[in-house]
């Protein structure tokens, strides 16, 4: 399994699109950071209360930027990434070649899942680093910051801890969505159709079922809400259980199917 994951990263390093995406993402983060400074405020929409306006500063910028681009990761990046990694390789016969080397199906699908989780995790850390650098470039030094209440005062250490919690919960949401995307791509063979189906399921599900909208279209609001109510541990455990359950379902379906390309 380790060799399969290592092979995935090797293939990724050989793609020009990888480096283009790294550059584009850094530029996007810096542009958003600059615009947030110009606009001065960030708006969070709580489901249980009216919208609140927060002042963006050096300490809360990472959370503010992730709130802006989070939907691009959940709705676009994850479906495209998983489809390119699973459905595309099914359709062009690469998975069949891998299995012909004696690697069992469970190892193949689980290694791909782990690779995608690690990749998204690296991407989130990269965003955190870029926003931190942007905050040093565009924003003045402050002693205190606020995230939820306009009159709260969080020190540097408290602000860093809040940002880390925010990013960690967002990562768990991404893991859950990776699990969902995996099972869709295991069932659907066409990469394009898998992307459309994945995005369609997320959008339709968000429209029909509010909790889905909370972790896809309004992930930042969901995270802020559970942090403010001290429900991080419970929600994190629930997301992990859902992710593992869907992954086991993906593995079961993949083992039952016979891919002959």
Automatic annotation (TrEMBL):
Transmembrane segments: 19-40, 61-82, 113-139, 160-184, 190-209, 230-254
UniProt keyword terms in alphabetical order: Membrane, Transmembrane, Transmembrane helix
PANTHER family for this protein: INTEGRAL MEMBRANE PROTEIN-RELATED (PTHR37305), MEMBRANE PROTEIN (PTHR37305:SF1)
Record carries keyword Membrane: yes
Source organism of the structure: Clostridium senegalense
Protein name in UniProt: ABC transporter permease
């Amino acid at each position: 399994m380790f060799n399969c994951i290592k092979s995935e990263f090797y293939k990724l390093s050989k793609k020009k699109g990888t480096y283009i995406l790294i550059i584009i993402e850094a530029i996007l983060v810096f542009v958003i950071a600059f615009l947030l400074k110009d606009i001065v405020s960030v708006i969070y929409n709580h489901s249980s209360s009216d919208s609140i306006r927060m002042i963006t500063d050096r300490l809360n910028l990472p959370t503010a930027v992730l709130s802006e681009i989070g939907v691009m990761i959940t709705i676009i990046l994850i479906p495209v990434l998983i489809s390119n990694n699973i459905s595309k390789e099914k359709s062009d016969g690469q998975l069949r070649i891998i299995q012909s080397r004696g690697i069992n199906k469970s190892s193949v699908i689980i290694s791909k899942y782990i690779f995608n989780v690690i990749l998204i995790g690296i991407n989130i850390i990269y965003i955190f680093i870029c926003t931190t650098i942007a905050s040093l470039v565009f924003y003045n030094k402050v002693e205190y910051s606020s995230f939820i209440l306009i009159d709260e005062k969080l020190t540097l250490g408290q602000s860093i801890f809040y940002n880390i919690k925010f990013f960690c919960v967002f990562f768990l949401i991404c893991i859950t969505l990776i699990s969902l995307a995996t099972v869709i791509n295991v069932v659907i063979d066409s990469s394009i159709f898998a992307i459309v189906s994945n995005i369609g399921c997320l959008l339709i599900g968000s429209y029909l079922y509010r909790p889905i909208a909370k972790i896809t279209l309004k992930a930042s609001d969901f995270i802020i809400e559970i942090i403010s109510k001290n429900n991080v541990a419970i929600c994190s455990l629930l997301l992990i259980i859902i992710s593992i359950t869907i992954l086991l379902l993906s593995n079961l379906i993949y083992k039952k199917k016979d891919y002959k390309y």
